[in-house]
Amino acid sequence: MEVIQNEEATSPHDAVHWDLGSQWAVRQGAWKLIHNVRATAGPNLAEEDQKWFLSNLKEDRGEMKNYVSHEPQVVKRLRQKHKAMRAEEK
Questions:
Q1: Of 74, 70, 73, 72, which is closest to residue 30 (Cα–Cα)?
Q2: Following CA atoms 51, 85, 67, 56 in sequence, which dihedral angle do they give, to the nearest 10 degrees?
Q3: In the chain, is it the N or the C terminus that has fewer CB atoms within a 10 Å radius of its CB?
Q4: What's the confidence (pLDDT) of residue 64?
Q5: Is pLDDT above 80 for 65?
Q6: Lowest mean per-residue pLDDT among 21-25, 43-47, 53-57, 64-68
Q7: CB 15 within 8 A of CB 85
Q8: What's the CA gap between 15 and 77, in Å, rounded?
Q9: What is the CB neighbour count within 10 angstroms for residue 26?
Q10: Mean pLDDT confidence for 56-77
Q11: What percentage of the chain reaches a pLDDT higher than 70?
């Protein structure tokens, strides 16, 4: 709770992830990768952005730009992070 209430407190975790049905996401630092965006965004999102959407929350708080094609190494790292975090839960 201290991490939520104090913006200067550091988290004991380096990443967070979540699953919502067929959609999942992982966030590490400023980067957030969402898989299966179409589950919540619907037809308002371009077709090429619906499967994978990578946001840089430091540069684009509104999550309007998809960095997938510009940052493939970040996508790979976050996909691996999500897979590892899911394995830890089991």
A1: 74
A2: 130
A3: C
A4: 86
A5: yes
A6: 43-47
A7: yes
A8: 11
A9: 23
A10: 93
A11: 78
Which contacts of 12-21 are long-range, i.e. CB under 8 A and separated by 24 or more positions? 15/78, 15/81, 15/85, 17/81, 17/82, 17/85, 17/86, 19/86
Q: How confident is the model at residue 41 (pLDDT cuts 50, 70, 90)?
A: low
Quote the CA–CA distance of 22 and 36 in Å, as a whole number: 7
- Write out pLDDT tens, residues 21-32: 888 999 999 999
Q: Give the per-residue SS3 of the chain.
A: CHHHHCCCCCCCCCCEEEEECCEEEEEECCEEEEECCHHHHHHHCCHHHCCEEEEECCCCCCCCCCCCCCCHHHHHHHHHHHHHHHHHHC
CA–CA dist 26, 8 (Å, integer): 22
pTM of the predicted model, to two decimals?
A: 0.78
Task: Return d(Cα 5, Cα 79) in angstroms, integer.
Answer: 29
